Amino acid sequence: MLYDQLAVYLEEIGHTRSANDRCLFHRHFADGRQIMFCIHMDDFAVAASDNSLIDDLVTALKLKYIIKESESLEDFLGVHMEQVDGRLHLS
């Protein structure tokens, strides 16, 4: 139920649900910027070509939901991620 409400809200604010993965939403802007939002259970991750897009999305989510933010994505869905020398290591 919460997923359905979140999906509707994300679509209302301009995001499109992936046809291949119900957990992935994306938005492309005319100037080439883009943002992707992935949700699984009570975790979500956001990646964007411009940090201001992430700030805008988080602000919009906070208007409707209580969320807890993390500055970096170190653990998601049981996977530990670490960036070393420009490479992403997953374990």
Spans of 5+ residues with little confidence (pLDDT < 50)?
A: none
Q: What's the shape?
A: globular
- Succession of helices and strands: HEEEEHEEE
**Average predicted local confidence, pLDDT:** 82
Assess the beta-strand content as a share of residues.
Answer: 35-45%
> What's the number of structural domains?
1
Straight-line N-to-C gap: 32 Å
Tally of extended strands? Answer: 7
Structure, explained:
The protein is of the alpha+beta class. It has one domain (2-90). Helix content is 27%, strand content 35%. It has 2 helices and 7 strands. It has helices spanning 2-12, 51-64, and strands at 16-17, 24-28, 34-40, 43-48, 75-76, 79-84, 87-90. The strands form 2 sheets. It has a 4-stranded antiparallel β-sheet with strand order 1-2-3-4, with helices on one face. A 3-stranded antiparallel β-sheet has the order 5-6-7, with no helix packed on it. It is globular and about 40 Å long. The termini are far apart. The mean pLDDT is 82.
Can you give keywords for this protein?
three-stranded antiparallel beta sheet, 2 helices, alpha+beta, 91 residues, 7 strands
SSE inventory with pairings:
Elements lengths: L1 H11 L3 E2 L6 E5 L5 E7 L2 E6 L2 H14 L10 E2 L2 E6 L2 E4 L1
Antiparallel strand pairs: 1-2, 2-3, 3-4, 5-6, 6-7
Summarize the structure.
The chain contains two helices and seven strands. By secondary structure, it is of the alpha+beta class.
